[in-house]
Amino acid sequence: METHIKTNETHLISDMCVKTVDIDKNAENVNNENKKYFACNICGQKFDQKRLLKKYFHTHTKEKPYSCVVCNKTFSLKCNLYRHSRTHTKEKPYSCDVCHKDFSQKDNLNMHFRTHTKEKPYSCDVCGKGFSQRGSLATHCRIHTAEKLFSCDLCYKDFSQKGHLNEHFLIHRNEKPFSCDICGKKYSRKYELKVHFRVHTNEKPYSCDVCHKDFSRKSNLNVHFRIHTNKKPFSCDVCGKKFSQKGHVNTHNRIHTNKDFYSPDV
């Protein structure tokens, strides 16, 4: 008898497949090389062995006969259980030939390898930007759709990425787990630390296409660029005067709220 994770697994699989999988003359076919194969009656997926078809059929029935002995999580395919088990054993059998980084799953190794080859097989239909991972493309597409699936339970601010929500939540908990190795300043978000570190390195990766002035923050570049476009998106609620920066509006508002600005000499 084949060894299984649970003792009654063979019986459960056999009963399920005999009742549900109809491997008859229509399911068993012959290809051009006169080689037999077994096709799933639901999706047409082909296998060269009958037992593989039976195991695969669990993906349609939603039955999960393979159970993890550590956390009891269940799976429809044994190979998925094996891959999951590495989260407990910390086994990483797949290694990158270039940088020798190890991975628990072959798919993760393949995705990682694109960092070396610069391959980006997934591209955005709107702007054409390429990505090495399908998930990264899906996340990027929310920029165009303005879709924000993740919401903060405390302030109800919405985010397009779960990682951004998790980082935002640290603000409410006043947690700052990211600290600068040079000056010790702490931040709640990793990105804020990355931007801060440019103070020490004097790195300015963002450059103006018009005057070639460099900036350490993209937001500063965006604000600067309004000098060339003469764009003024911020306006005073009282007098309607427009400004290129929000901070300038706040400064201007003191004219309307501060008595010192209403002297007879003005």
UniProtKB/TrEMBL annotation:
GO MF terms listed in the record are: DNA-binding transcription repressor activity, RNA polymerase II-specific; RNA polymerase II cis-regulatory region sequence-specific DNA binding; zinc ion binding
Where it mainly occurs, coarsely classed, is nucleus
Give its localization: Nucleus
Q: What GO cellular component is one of the record's annotations?
A: nucleoplasm
| Pfam families registered for this protein in UniProt | zf-C2H2
Which keywords describe this protein according to UniProt?
Answer: DNA-binding, Metal-binding, Nucleus, Repeat, Transcription, Transcription regulation, Zinc, Zinc-finger
Q: Does the keyword Transcription apply?
A: yes
Tagged with keyword Repeat: yes
The C2H2-type domain covers 38-65, 66-93, 94-121, 122-149, 150-177, 178-205, 206-233, 234-261
Q: Which family does it belong to?
A: Belongs to the krueppel C2H2-type zinc-finger protein family.
PANTHER family given in the database record = C2H2-TYPE DOMAIN-CONTAINING PROTEIN (PTHR24399:SF23), ZINC FINGER AND BTB DOMAIN-CONTAINING (PTHR24399)
Q: Could you identify this protein by its name? A: Zinc finger protein 235
Organism of origin is Araneus ventricosus
Q: Lineage of the source organism? A: Eukaryota, Metazoa, Ecdysozoa, Arthropoda, Chelicerata
